[in-house]
Write a structure and sequence with these properties.
By secondary structure, the protein is α+β, with helices and mostly antiparallel strands. The protein has helices spanning about 5-30, 35-55, 60-65, 90-110, 140-155, and strands at about 75-80, 115-125, 130-135, 160-165, 170-175. It has a 5-stranded mixed β-sheet. InterPro entries: Sig_transdc_His_kin_SpoOB, Spo0B_C_sf, SPOB_a, SpoOB_C.
């Protein structure tokens, strides 16, 4: 990584932490203890799951999720990693899938809505890695997004379940190859 890239990473990270500190200072100054506690809990949760994701041994995928909000998108994400997650991921496959999915959601997301994607990284009963996606917001053409997921999933042997409507997408992706 070049010096400029390292500085850019540090700049974004510092910006994120300054935002959190500003929220904490504001809530403290206003005496809003409950709001202060919520910010602390959310920040702790996020940092904990970023650490877990960093330990998954899929650096490109981890970087994609952790830095997602550093670029402009028409939806936000939150993610969590199951405590007992120990499956091996195909880093490139999962990164490519997520980048493609993000591009399709950006195309399909209604820009006047608050669109959000919850991502859960876990294992199924057979120990295979799973990506559980839960989108809330508004999609312009949910059928097109479903077709892309179906097509992409068949090509990479990953889909287990999908449900799509104008305001909701729920999908479970299982890496049948188990990272092989």
């Amino acid at each position: 990584m070049k010096a400029e890239e390292k500085l850019d990473v540090l700049k974004h990270s510092r910006h994120d932490w300054m935002n959190v500190l500003q929220l904490l200072k504001t809530h403290a100054a206003l005496g809003k203890v409950e709001e202060l506690q919520k910010v602390i809990e959310k920040t702790t949760f996020k940092a904990s799951h970023e650490a877990k994701l960093s330990n998954v041994q899929a650096p490109a995928f981890a970087l994609e999720l952790i830095t997602f909000h550093w670029q402009e998108h028409w939806f936000s994400i939150d993610f969590e990693v199951e405590d007992s997650f120990s499956a091996e991921l195909d880093d490139q496959k999962w990164t490519d899938f997520f980048q493609g999915l993000a591009a399709r959601i950006d195309e399909q997301a209604e820009r006047t809505r608050n669109n959000h994607l919850e991502i859960s990284i876990n294992q199924n009963d057979g120990g295979l890695p799973c990506l559980e996606l839960d989108f809330e917001g508004e999609l312009k053409s949910p059928g097109r997004l479903e077709q892309w997921i179906q097509k992409e999933s068949v090509m990479i042997d990953m889909i287990e379940y999908i449900e799509v409507s104008t305001e909701h997408l729920y999908c479970v992706i299982v890496d049948q190859t188990g990272g092989q």
